[in-house]
C-alpha cells in the first residue's frame, strides 16, 4: 500500500461501512475501507455478487436489497482492503492492520468503526457438541458455499432464525422442526410496542410471509422450554418441554441455535472508547451522539456495532456518521443529515417491539446445568465459574485469573455476557456495575511473523 | 549466611513487635509476602490496596524466577529469595508453584558473546559462580529448536518461572490464614505522625499504627511523599504477549544477551513472550496503552531465537503498571521518619525477589538485622546526591 494517511478510514464493509464510504468519497474525502472478508457486504449481504446467478434465488428479497448499495460501493472510488485484519487502534489514531501476512500502520483524521453484530450465545446443555452450530453460521454456509444440511432442528428465537429457516426451505432443504423459545411474558412485554412497529408494515408483512410459508412445510413448536442437546461425540438428538409440560425427545443430526444478535464491541472496547449497558436490549453498546461520534472525537461508530437496528438502519447510520465527518471539513449537509436522522428513527420504530419480544429469558442466557460449558475455548463449565465466584472473584477480569474463562482463542467474544450474567446472579449487582472483560489488542489473533513484520522480515 | 531452615525456626519463635497492626500499603507480591512473613511471626497486619490483590504488575508480569542477569548489588537478595522459591510449595501450601528449569540468555552475535564474557568475569570477581557460559552445541542438545546461528549463551541451572497471579494470590491466602487482614479497594489519602504513632487516613476511615510499610509499586512515590520522603519512580508498562497453544517443545526460559526478550512455554502449551519493551502507562487512570512497534520489536527477537514459531498466533497482548527507579534498583529500607519502611520501585524484576523482600521488610518492622546487605537499595540514595 502506498498511502499511509487518509482523511477517513472505515473499518468494516457491511451496509454501514459501504454506505459511509459512498458518502465520504462523494464529498471528495480520501477514504479507505478495511474489511476482513474477501468481498464486501458484511454478514447480511455476504457473497451477493456470486449469488446473483442462483436459480431459484432462494435467499429472498431482503438479501438482494443490498445489490444497489454494493454496486454503489464498488463504484465509489474508495481505497478498499479485503482480507485484512485490524488488530489495534492506538490513542494517536494509528490503525494497526495485517494484510497478506504483513503488518502495517496507517493513520486517519477520522475513523468509522462499522464492525456489525455478533450472535448472542445460547448455552443450552450440549451447545458445544459437534453438529451444533449457530443459525448465523448455518446461514453463512448457505450464502458463501451453497451448503446446507437436511433435517436440521432450528432452536431459539428472533428474525434471523426465521429468515434462515425460510431460506433453507426455499433452497429445497428439509427442516426437521423449529423450536421457538419465545415465552408468553416476552409477547406481553412486546405487545404495547406493536403499534410503533406498524410504522414499518413492509417488515411486518415480510415476517408474516416467512412464518406462513415455513408453517406449510415445517413443524413450528412455540413456548419451548428446557432444551437439552444430547449425544456422546456428536449430536444425536435433543429434548424439550412443551407448553403443556410434556417432555419430547427428537432425534437430530444437526441443531442450529439462535437467540438474537448483539453489537460487536470488541474493537471499540479494546480502543478504550466509553460503553454503556443497554438494559432494554440487554447488551453493551458504545456511548455516542446521534451521528455516531464516540467518546473519542475522531472516532465514529456506525451500524449494528452501535446498537442493533438491522441492515437498513445500519446503512443510514453509516451515511449519518459520514456526513457528520464531511461537515467537519466545512461542508455541512444539514438537509441530508436531517433526512438520515428521520430515516434512522423510522427504521428503529420496530426495534422496541423486536427487542422485547426476542430478549431471551435468563434461563436461556446462562446455563441451567452445572456441567454445561460457558467458555468453550478453555472448557470452563458453569460449575467452574460458580467455584471461582465462591472463592472470592469479584469481577469478570478477576474471574479470568481464577477460572481461565475468556482467556482462550476467542478472548471472551462468546462467553463475555454469560460470565457477567453469572456474576450478576451471584452478587446481585447490576450488569452495568459489573462491567465487561478488559479487552486488549490484538482484537483478532495475528501470527508472530505478521506482528514482527512491522519491524522487518521474520528470520528464516 | 544462615540457612533458610534456621531462619524459619527462629522467626516462628518471635513475638509481635507492636500491638497495633502494621499497615502495609499495596497488595502486590511484595505487600502480600511481607504480610505473610509478619503474620507468621505473630505480628498483626492490615493490608490496604486501592484496587485488589495482584491487580497490577504483580498479577500480570512475565513470571520469570531468575538469578540470571541481575545487578551485582541485587544478587544476595535474589539468592535469599531463591531459597524460599525452592520450598515455595510447602511455604504456601500449593503444588508445582515453581517450575524449576534453566534460564539462558543466548548470544546471537559477537557483541552478545562479548557481553556474556565480561559479565561472567565480573561475577567471578565478586565471588558469584551461578552464571555459566555454555557452548552452542550443548545448547542445541538441550533446546533442539534453537536457531542454528546462535553462538552460545549464559545459563543458570535451576532458574525458571511461576504463574505470577497464582503466587501473589497464594501469599495473600496464607497471610489471611495466619490472621492478616486485607481491605480492598481502600486508598490511602494521608499519613500523619500524631504523638507517638501514625494515623492513616483512607477513603473509608482512619487507622492507627506504629509501622507503615510502603509496597505501593508504581504508586510508591506518592505514598513516600506523604511521609516527606522524596523517592522518585517512573511508571512504565512493560508489554507481554501470549500465544495459542503449541506442542510442548521448551523446558527453559530464553532471553537474549543485550536484547529484550523473555520467552517461556506454559504447561498448557501457550508461550509467554516479553522482555521489557514498554507501552504507555497511565497510573492515575489504571490504564496502559500498547505500542504496536514495541510489540513488534520483541516478537522479532523471539523469531531470531525460534524461527519455527512463524505461524503461531498471538491471542492477547497486555501490560502491567510498574515503578522504575533511576538506577533500576528497588527502594528497600527505612524512611526518614520513625516507623516508615519502604519496599517499591522494583523496575520490572521484583517478582522473583518477592519472598526475599517479604522476609527483609518484616525484619525491618520487627527491628531485626536482615541477613542481606540492603544498603544499595537505600531510600535516599538519590536525594543525597543532590
Describe this structure in words.
The complex is a heterodimer of chains A (460) and B (386). In chain A, the strands form 6 sheets. In chain A, strands 1, 2, 3, 4, 5, 6 and 19 form a 7-stranded mixed β-sheet that branches. Chain A has a 5-stranded parallel β-sheet with strand order 8-15-9-10-11. Chain A folds into 3 domains: 5-118 and 262-332, FAD/NAD(P)-binding domain (3-Layer(bba) Sandwich), CATH 3.50.50.60; 121-259, 3-Layer(bba) Sandwich (FAD/NAD(P)-binding domain); 366-434, BFD-like [2Fe-2S]-binding domain (Arc Repressor Mutant, subunit A, Orthogonal Bundle). With 460 residues, chain A is of the alpha/beta class. In chain A, helix 7 packs antiparallel against helix 13. Chain B has 386 residues and is an alpha+beta fold. Chain B has 2 domains: 4-62 and 165-232 and 329-385, FAD/NAD(P)-binding domain (3-Layer(bba) Sandwich), CATH 3.50.50.60; 100-159 and 234-324, D-Amino Acid Oxidase, subunit A, domain 2 (D-Amino Acid Oxidase, Chain A, domain 2, 2-Layer Sandwich), CATH 3.30.9.10. Chain B has helices at residues 4-13, 29-40, 57-60, 75-85, 88-92, 110-125, 136-142, 164-177, 220-226, 292-305, 354-365, 381-385, and strands at residues 22-25, 45-48, 64-65, 99-106, 132-134, 153-161, 181-183, 188-194, 197-202, 205-209, 212-214, 234-243, 253-256, 262-265, 271-274, 278-282, 287-289, 313-319, 322-324, 331-334, 340-344. In chain B, strand 16 (278-282) and strand 17 (287-289) form a beta hairpin. In chain B, helix 2 runs parallel beside helix 8 and helix 4 crosses helix 11. Chain B is globular. Chains A and B meet through strand 22 and helix 19 of A and helix 10 and strand 18 of B.
Amino acid at each position: 500500500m502506498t498511502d499511509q494517511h487518509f482523511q477517513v478510514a472505515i473499518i468494516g464493509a457491511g451496509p454501514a461501512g459501504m454506505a459511509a464510504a459512498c458518502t465520504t468519497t462523494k464529498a471528495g474525502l480520501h477514504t479507505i475501507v478495511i474489511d476482513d472478508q474477501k468481498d464486501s457486504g458484511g454478514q447480511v449481504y455476504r457473497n451477493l455478487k456470486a449469488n446473483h446467478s442462483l436459480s431459484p434465488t432462494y435467499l429472498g428479497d431482503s438479501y438482494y436489497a443490498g445489490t444497489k448499495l454494493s454496486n454503489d460501493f464498488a463504484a465509489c472510488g474508495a481505497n478498499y482492503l479485503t482480507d485484512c485484519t485490524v488488530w489495534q487502534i492506538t490513542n494517536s489514531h494509528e490503525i494497526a492492520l495485517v494484510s497478506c501476512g504483513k503488518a502495517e500502520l496507517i493513520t486517519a483524521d477520522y475513523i468509522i468503526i462499522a464492525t456489525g453484530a455478533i450472535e448472542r450465545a445460547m448455552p443450552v446443555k450440549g451447545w458445544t457438541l459437534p453438529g451444533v452450530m449457530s443459525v448465523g453460521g448455518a446461514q453463512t454456509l448457505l450464502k458463501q458455499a451453497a451448503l446446507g444440511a437436511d433435517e436440521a432442528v432450528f432452536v431459539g428465537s428472533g428474525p434471523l432464525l426465521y429468515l434462515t429457516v425460510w431460506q433453507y426451505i426455499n433452497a429445497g432443504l428439509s427442516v426437521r422442526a423449529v423450536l421457538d423459545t419465545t415465552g408468553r411474558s416476552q409477547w406481553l412485554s412486546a405487545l404495547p410496542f406493536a403499534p410503533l412497529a406498524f410504522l414499518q408494515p413492509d417488515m411486518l408483512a415480510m415476517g408474516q410471509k416467512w412464518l406462513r410459508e415455513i408453517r406449510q412445510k415445517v413443524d413450528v413448536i412455540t413456548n419451548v422450554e428446557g432444551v437439552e442437546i444430547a449425544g456422546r461425540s456428536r449430536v444425536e438428538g435433543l429434548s424439550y418441554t412443551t407448553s403443556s409440560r410434556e417432555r419430547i425427545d427428537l432425534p437430530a443430526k444437526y441443531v442450529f441455535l439462535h437467540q438474537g444478535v448483539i453489537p460487536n464491541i470488541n474493537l471499540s472496547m479494546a480502543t478504550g472508547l466509553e460503553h454503556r449497558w443497554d438494559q432494554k436490549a440487554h447488551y453493551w453498546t458504545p456511548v455516542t451522539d446521534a451521528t455516531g461520534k464516540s467518546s473519542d472525537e475522531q472516532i465514529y461508530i456506525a451500524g449494528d456495532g452501535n446498537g442493533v437496528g438491522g441492515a437498513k438502519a445500519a446503512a443510514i447510520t453509516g451515511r449519518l456518521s459520514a456526513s457528520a465527518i464531511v461537515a467537519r471539513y466545512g461542508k455541512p449537509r444539514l438537509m441530508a443529515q436531517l433526512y438520515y436522522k428521520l430515516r434512522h428513527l423510522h427504521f428503529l420504530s420496530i426495534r422496541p417491539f423486536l427487542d422485547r419480544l426476542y430478549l431471551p429469558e435468563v434461563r436461556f442466557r446462562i446455563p441451567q446445568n452445572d456441567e454445561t460449558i460457558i467458555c468453550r475455548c478453555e472448557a470452563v463449565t458453569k460449575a467452574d465459574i460458580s467455584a471461582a465466584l465462591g472463592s472470592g472473584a469479584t469481577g469478570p477480569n478477576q474471574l479470568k485469573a481464577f477460572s481461565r474463562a475468556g482467556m482462550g482463542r476467542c478472548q471472551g467474544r462468546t462467553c463475555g455476557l454469560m460470565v457477567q450474567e453469572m456474576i450478576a446472579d451471584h452478587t446481585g449487582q447490576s450488569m452495568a456495575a459489573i462491567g465487561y472483560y478488559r479487552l486488549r489488542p490484538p482484537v483478532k489473533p495475528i501470527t508472530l511473523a505478521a506482528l514482527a513484520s512491522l519491524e522487518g522480515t521474520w528470520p528464516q | 549466611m544462615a540457612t533458610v531452615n534456621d531462619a524459619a525456626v527462629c522467626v516462628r519463635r518471635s513475638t509481635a513487635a507492636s500491638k497495633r497492626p502494621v499497615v502495609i500499603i499495596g497488595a502486590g507480591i511484595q505487600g502480600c509476602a511481607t504480610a505473610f512473613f509478619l503474620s507468621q511471626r505473630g505480628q498483626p497486619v492490615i493490608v490496604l490496596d486501592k484496587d485488589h490483590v495482584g491487580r497490577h504488575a504483580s498479577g500480570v508480569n512475565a513470571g520469570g524466577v531468575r538469578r540470571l542477569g541481575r545487578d551485582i548489588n541485587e544478587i544476595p537478595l535474589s539468592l535469599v529469595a531463591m531459597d524460599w522459591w525452592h520450598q515455595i510449595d510447602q511455604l504456601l501450601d500449593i503444588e508445582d508453584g515453581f517450575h524449576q528449569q534453566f534460564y539462558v540468555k543466548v548470544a546471537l552475535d559477537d557483541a552478545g558473546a562479548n557481553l556474556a564474557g565480561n559479565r561472567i568475569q565480573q561475577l567471578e570477581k565478586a565471588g558469584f559462580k551461578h552464571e555459566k557460559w555454555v557452548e552452542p552445541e550443548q545448547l542445541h542438545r538441550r533446546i533442539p529448536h534453537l536457531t542454528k546461528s546462535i553462538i552460545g549463551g549464559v545459563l543458570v541451572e535451576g532458574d525458571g518461572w511461576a504463574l505470577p497471579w497464582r503466587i501473589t494470590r497464594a501469599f495473600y491466602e496464607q497471610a489471611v490464614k495466619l490472621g492478616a487482614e486485607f481491605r480492598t479497594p481502600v486508598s490511602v489519602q494521608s499519613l500523619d505522625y500524631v504523638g507517638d504513632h501514625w494515623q492513616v487516613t483512607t477513603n473509608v476511615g482512619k487507622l492507627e499504627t506504629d509501622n507503615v510499610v510502603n509496597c505501593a509499586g508504581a504508586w510508591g512515590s506518592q505514598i513516600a511523599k506523604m511521609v516527606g520522603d522524596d523517592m522518585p519512580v517512573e511508571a512504565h508498562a512493560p508489554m507481554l504477549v501470549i500465544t495459542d497453544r503449541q506442542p510442548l517443545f521448551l523446558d527453559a526460559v530464553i532471553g537474549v544477551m543485550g536484547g529484550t526478550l523473555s520467552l517461556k512455554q506454559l504447561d498448557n502449551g501457550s508461550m509467554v513472550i516479553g522482555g521489557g519493551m514498554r507501552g504507555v502507562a497511565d497510573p492515575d487512570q489504571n490504564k496502559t496503552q500498547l505500542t504496536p512497534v514495541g510489540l513488534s520489536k520483541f516478537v522479532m527477537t523471539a523469531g531470531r531465537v525460534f524461527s519455527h514459531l512463524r505461524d503461531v498466533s498471538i491471542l492477547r497482548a497486555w501490560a502491567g503498571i510498574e515503578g522504575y527507579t533511576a538506577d533500576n534498583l528497588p527502594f528497600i529500607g527505612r524512611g526518614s521518619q520513625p516507623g516508615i519502611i519502604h519496599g517499591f520501585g522494583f523496575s520490572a524484576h521484583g517478582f522473583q525477589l518477592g519472598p526475599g523482600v517479604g522476609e527483609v521488610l518484616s525484619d525491618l518492622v520487627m527491628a531485626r538485622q536482615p541477613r542481606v546487605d540492603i544498603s544499595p537499595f537505600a531510600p535516599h540514595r538519590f536525594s543525597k546526591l543532590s
